[in-house]
Task: structure prediction
Amino acid sequence: MKIHEAFTYLRVRNAPAAIAFYTAAFGAREKLRLTEPSGRVGHAELDFGGTTIMVSEEYPEMGILGPASLGGTSFSVHLHVDDADAAVARAVEAGATVVRPLRDQFYGERSGAVRDPFGHDWLIGHEIEKVSPEEMQRRYDELMRSS
Result:
């Protein structure tokens, strides 16, 4: 078996509002939307700078639930951008809340985290220095000792 791609698939309440948010907050471009006669979005594809993220409504009747129904999310999406400060500011302006403020990280990135209005967490960062895996481990070990 050969894997050709892997996609993140976000399940949300009110997919049209989520699509509008992702467009405003992150500059995503809508590629495709399949809408039921009832108006429920069964599937949408958004282009995040060359990476596709898929979005659908919740389908409780099929066990497909989003963070609002589950009481939170167990994962986050990481956006690697050219200016994390500007990206976080744009997301907050569009309605996200800061979960972890931006700061310079031991692994060579300036990053922070926001939660979108639909309950998904987004890590947003940009590179500030190249760090080898060995140096990253050394710094991580040091961080864990001081915690």
In short: Residues 8-146 form a domain with the 2,3-Dihydroxybiphenyl 1,2-Dioxygenase; domain 1 fold (CATH 3.10.180.10). The helical segments are 15-26, 67-70, 84-94, 133-146.
